[in-house]
Design goal:
With 180 residues, the protein is α/β, with parallel strands linked by helices. It has a single domain, classed as Leucine Aminopeptidase, subunit E, domain 1 (3-Layer(aba) Sandwich), CATH 3.40.220.10. The chain contains 5 helices and 7 strands; from the N terminus they run E-E-E-H-H-E-E-H-E-H-E-H. It has a 7-stranded mixed sheet, sandwiched between helices. Helix 3 runs parallel beside helix 4 and helix 4 crosses helix 5. The longest helix has 18 residues. It is globular, with a radius of gyration of 15 Å. The model has no long low-confidence stretch (mean pLDDT 96). The structure holds ligand AR6. Ligand AR6 binds next to strand 3 and helix 1.
Length: 180
C-alpha cells in the first residue's frame, strides 16, 4: 500500500511515483520546450508513451510560471498539466513568486476543465535546485487556497519521491496552519 497522510480536507501527502497515481490530472515539472527531459518529466513521458511527445510538439513550448494541458495517453490520468518551474538562482530573482505562479496556472486549468483530482510533484526541487523546504511552503499554501476557492477541485495529492520529502510537506502544513 502507498503511504499516505491526509493532512487537510482534500489534501494528502503521498510517498511514491506520480505516474502510478489514480487521479484525473497529473502535473509535470517540465522545461520550457515541453519536449521531455529527466526526473519526473522523463518518467511521465515514458509512462504516457510517444503520443504525449507528439501532442507536446504541437503545443509549442511554455514560459516559466505558466502551464499547458495535454491528454495523458497511457497514464492512469486523463490529463497531464505541464508547468515550468523556476531555476533557483539564489532567491533574489523572483523564484518564489514564479513557483507560486506555476501552482496557480495549474489550478486555473484544473478549474477550466472541471477536474476533480490532481497530483503534483515537488516542482523545481530536483534539477532546478529550488530549496525543498521553501518550495513545500509555497506548494502547501497554494494547494490550500485552491481547495478553498475551487469549484470542481476536490482532491490534491502532493506526491513525494522520498520519506524526507514527505516530512518536509508535513512540516510545511504545520507551519501554514500556525500562520493562519
Ligand atoms: N514521481 C514523483 N516525484 C518525482 C519522480 C516521480 N516519478 N521523479 C522525480 N521526482 P525534477 P525540476 C521528484 O528534477 O526540479 C527535467 O529534466 C524529484 O525527486 O523532475 O522542476 C525537466 O525536463 C524532485 O523532488 O524537476 C526540466 O528540465 C521533483 O520530482 C527539469 O528537469 C522535481 O524534480 C525540471 O526540474
Amino acid at each position: 500500500m502507498t503511504p499516505e497522510w491526509k493532512i487537510s480536507p482534500g489534501l494528502s501527502v503521498v510517498l511514491g511515483d506520480i505516474t502510478k497515481m489514480r487521479v484525473e490530472a497529473m502535473v509535470n515539472a517540465a522545461n520550457s520546450s515541453l519536449l521531455g527531459g529527466g526526473g519526473v518529466d522523463g518518467a511521465i513521458h515514458r509512462a504516457a508513451g510517444p503520443e504525449l511527445l507528439k501532442e507536446c510538439r504541437s503545443v509549442g513550448g511554455c514560459p516559466t510560471g505558466e502551464a499547458r494541458i495535454t491528454r495523458g495517453y497511457d497514464l492512469p490520468a486523463a490529463w497531464v498539466i505541464h508547468t515550468v518551474g523556476p531555476v533557483w538562482r539564489g532567491g533574489d530573482c523572483g523564484e518564489e513568486e514564479m513557483l507560486a505562479c506555476c501552482y496557480r496556472s495549474c489550478f486555473s486549468l484544473v478549474e477550466e476543465r472541471g477536474i476533480k483530482s490532481v497530483a503534483f510533484p515537488a516542482i523545481s526541487t530536483g534539477a532546478y535546485g529550488f530549496p525543498a523546504r521553501r518550495a513545500a511552503g509555497i506548494a502547501v499554501q497554494e494547494m490550500i487556497l485552491a481547495l478553498e476557492k475551487g469549484k470542481s477541485l476536490k482532491s490534491i495529492l502532493a506526491v513525494c519521491y522520498s520519506p524526507e520529502s514527505c516530512q518536509i510537506y508535513l512540516d510545511a502544513l504545520e507551519a501554514c496552519r500556525k500562520q493562519r
